[in-house]
Structures are given as structure tokens and as C-alpha cells.
Amino acid sequence: MNELRELYQETILDHSRRPRNFGELAQATHRAEGSNPLCGDRVTVYLQVEGELIREARFEGAGCSISTASASIMTDALRGRTLAEARELFERFHALVTADPSRPVEAGPGLGKLGVFAGVHEFPMRVKCASLSWHTMKAALDGGGKATTE
Fold first, then answer.
1. From CA 135, how far away is CA 35, in angstroms rounded?
2. d(Cα 56, Cα 25) in Å, to the nearest integer?
3. Residue 30 DSSP label
4. Could you tell me whether strands 41-50 and 30-36 are parallel, antiparallel, or unpaired per DSSP bridges?
């Protein structure tokens, strides 16, 4: 289990140091801003949606390593999904990171790299860091505006 935890930590650090899909998306059709007032994380999520399909996903912002890595991996995971699939993925990710900390949790099939956040539920103060970009993505799908973890 230690080897798996180390792999998860390496993946989070890699996406934090070299975030994928970072930067504004000029042809965005959906956009929202998010903030975590407790630790200062902030993110803007951009989506290019055609019909029911997310063609492109990008983000900008500044935050801790978990917040940045979550946004980076999320944008990878959203590309090519339908809006319904994106909403379902939000629910599955949220359930993963908010699980009861006293019980072990498994990422389950279909989450791919998002499984690296399975251990976040053990650290309640970090749940908001991991979920900020997800709440912001959901706000973008719901018409834009602002999302907050408070």
C-alpha cells in the first residue's frame, strides 16, 4: 500500500509542478471562477462545449499542489465526455474525496488518474482543495458565475 500511496503522491506532484491544460481557452463556451477562501486557492475553468460534448477543457489560477493537480487531471478527464458524463464524474469524484475518513475507500472503475485523490478523504481540510475545480466546472456547466468551497 505504501508503494501505491507514493505513486499517488508522485502523480499529484507532477500535475502540480507541470499542470496540463493550463491557460485561458479563447473559444470557451462555458466559464466559471472558483475560490477557496480558507487557503486562498482560486481557479477559473473554461469549457468548449459543442452540443452535448465537451471538446476542450482548460483552467487558470493559483493554489496548493492538491488544488492545481486536481484541476489538471480534471481537465484531462473531461475532454471528450458528454455533459451528462461530466456531471456523473463530478458526483463520483465528490463521493471519493468526501467519504467517511474512518473507512478505507477505493476509487473504483472509471475514475482513471482521478483515483490518486482517494486518500484526500483522510484529510478533511484538503477536501476543499481537491474539489474546488470540480465545483467550478459544475458552475460553468450550470451557466457560469462563481463557485466557492464555503
1. 10
2. 8
3. E
4. antiparallel
Residue 134 CA to residue 138 CA, distance in Å, equals: 6
The pLDDT tens digits for 99-144 are 876 666 666 667 778 888 888 888 888 899 999 999 999 999 999 8
Q: At what angle do helices 65-78 and 83-97 cross, to 10 degrees?
A: 150
Is 115 buried (19+), middle (13-18) or exposed (0-12) by CB count in 10 A?
buried
- In the three-class reduction of DSSP (H, G, I as helix; E, B as strand; rest coil), residue 79 is classed as coil
Cα 20 to Cα 97: distance, rounded to the nearest angstrom: 21
83, 141 Cβ separation under 8 angstroms: yes
For residues 127 and 123, what is the distance between their CA atoms, to the nearest angstrom?
7
Q: Where does 41-96 show beta strands of DSSP type E?
A: 41-50, 53-62
- Contact call for residues 96 and 121 (beta carbons, < 8 A): yes
Q: Give me the amino acid identity at 2.
A: N
CATH code linked to domain 2-148: 3.90.1010.10
